[in-house]
Amino acid sequence: MILARLSRAVREQNWFAVAIEFVIVVCGVLLAFQISLLSERQAAQERINVQVELLRTEMRANLAEIQANIGILETNNGNLRELRVQLSAFTEGDDATRLNELALYAFMNPSLDAEHFALDQLEIMDGRASLSGSRLEAEMRDWRQVFESVRDTEGNIDSLIEVTNAGSTFEALSIAAMVDSYPRIGLVEPVPVRFDTDWLTLSEDEGFADHLAIFALNLEYLWAMNQRLETATQDLLAAIDERHPE
Predict the structure, then answer these.
(1) Nearest to 123, CA basis, from 38, 229, 52
(2) Most exposed of 60, 82, 122, 135 (fewest Cβ within 10 Å)?
(3) Could you tell me how far CA 118 lies from the centroid of its own chain?
(4) Most distant CA atoms of the chain, gap in Å
(5) pLDDT tens, 73-127?
């Protein structure tokens, strides 16, 4: 219809009518484009909203894991502190039963079982710009930074644990020795934990004392970083609730 009128106006050299019809056509195209663009933006925002909900679920699960991990680290820290005290006071003829127990549970590095898949996806999605400058964006960035610090510290502790492995000065406290010493399931009577090591010699070994001190510092730092991650997770959940109330 519009093209027919435009063609007739051109034949009749009615340039005013031509201009009017041309403006109508252009406006129609622009309006259709804007409607399409708005629809795309709304669809992208809906996808962002769905992903934010997935992030909320992920962070709630992470919070429970972090809090459980903090409890484990507190126990490990206590065991390591007691091991250092008992070892410093150990003398020939003392019963090493408690030292064996403490060694089994002190040299553990629980790896935090936290997920960040939903966070990864949200950070690369179309429409991500809608979060720019928001509190949610800031809390997401802070969470990732703290989480990476947790992983770095876990790696440092793994390296320290490796020092006790095969071929080292403290091989008798290696991971393999820990596995062998762990109480066997199904036994009628529990067998006491025992490491094939000379505790008296270790009590006088300055290198081992230094190793324990460095290990303790890293374990304390890991505990502190897990606490920071707990706070960062709570802050991220608060930012999600602020933006998308349930």
Answers:
(1) 52
(2) 60
(3) 11
(4) 119
(5) 999 999 999 999 999 999 988 999 899 888 887 777 778 999 999 999 998 887 7
